[in-house]
Each structure stands twice: as C-alpha cells, then as structure tokens.
User: Fold this.
Amino acid sequence: MLDVITALDAKALSWALSLPHPDWLDSLMAVASASGSATIWLALGALVAAWGRISWMAYWQVVLSIVLVVLTIEVILKPAIGRERPSEETPEIVLSMEPLGTAAFPSGHAATAVAGAYALSRLLPRARLVLWLLALLIAGSRVYLGVHYPLDVIVGALVGLACAMFSVGGTVWYSRDPAVRVLQGPR
Assistant:
C-alpha cells in the first residue's frame, strides 16, 4: 500500500513539474519559499502586536503554535520518517538552489505556513484571506520548486493546523480599544 502511495506521489510531482514554469513564476515561488520559514509568521505577529492590533499575550499564542510545529516536525517526525527529498532521487528536477539538509516528510514550510495563518487569522479575522493565500503560496512553492512531494506538503499542512488548533484552542482575545475589538463568535 505504501508503495502505491509513494508512486502516486511521485507521479503527482512529475505532473506538477511538467507544467509551464515561466521565469516570473519561478522567481515568485523562490521568494515565497525562501520567506516561508517560521520567521515570517513570527515577524508578522510581532509587527501587528507592536502596532497595537493584537495584545502581546495573543502574540505568544502565535509563537507557541510555531514552536510546537518546529518541535513536532524537525525533532520528532522528520528524523523518525527520514523520507528523501525529490532532489536526492532526481536532482535535475529541482528549481531551488537552497541547501536542503533535512528529510522531506513532512514539509516544515507548509506546517509553519498553515500554523501561522491559522493563529494569526484567529486574531485578525479581516486579514484571513491574505494570510491563507500567503500560506497557500508558501506551501505550493515547495512542490513547484521540486523540493517536496505533494504528500509532504499535505501532511505538513495538517500537522501545522493541528499544532495551531491545539495552541490557540478556543481562545478569543479582546482589544481594550472598542474600535478594533474582535467579537466572539464562529470563525
């Protein structure tokens, strides 16, 4: 069964890499991938907290989400699973020039992108669409550049979502300023 899944995953990657890759899109995906580390989500959260749109206590939930993702992915899952990256099997397909020193499964970029988007969109509901589009761009860039199989990205996104949901829970943060108050309700 595992052989069938990995074969389908490899075919999905081959299909994605066979699509047209114009230079402008290569550049966009390389920038998205390079900026897709945990740093961008922590910096966005800190910027919004410093601006006064969220409290610093709310920001610490974003930090907790990202830290939990990094520990889960980099310390537990990647070493335990150890799946090779596509570039190690077929180096000619890789469009990225970044050093790839860790295992492929699951994608840490996808996990931190989804965790960051979830945690920040809970705090900034008006920015939800932009945050999720950024997360999708970062996660998709990993397959586009050939440094991850699609399944690596999907599982990474699910791990990121689980970590962020655990970290954020049902917490609703309120601003002292009624003009920027986040109302409690379904999100």
